[in-house]
Design a protein that fits this description.
mainly alpha; transmembrane; membrane; transmembrane helix
Length: 117
């Protein structure tokens, strides 16, 4: 078992692909920054605050997406207003049309009654 582990470890180190130099520099710069911040905290009275979330619980979107969603929200409210407005106008016209036939039936009945008199 131990022999197999050593063989795998040796194979991993022999065939390892090194990352690009700029990635190494970025990681080292971050480590140096954190180390310098820790030393500065020990020497001074101020607190070092990291404003970036560590857990990745925040989602950021591009500014144009925010504008797009705001425009869509406003347009949906405008369309909702017009849908309700025209629905009420349609219902009002339908009630007028229902009143008209009832009135015409009464007029026809009165004319028929006058005709027989």
């Amino acid at each position: 078992m131990e022999l197999a582990e050593r063989r795998l470890e040796k194979a991993c180190f022999d065939e390892a692909v090194l990352p690009p130099v700029e990635i190494r520099e970025r990681v080292l710069q971050k480590v140096r920054w954190e180390y310098a911040g820790a030393q500065a905290d020990a020497q001074s009275n101020y607190t070092f605050i990291n404003i970036q979330p560590k857990d990745g619980s925040h989602i950021s979107v591009h500014r144009w997406w925010k504008i797009f969603f705001i425009i869509i929200f406003i347009l949906s409210k405008i369309f909702l207003f017009f849908a309700i407005f025209y629905y009420l106008k349609y219902r009002q016209e339908k009630e007028k049309q229902e009143e008209v036939p009832a009135a015409t039936v009464l007029i026809h009945e009165q004319k028929a009654n006058n005709f027989y008199i």
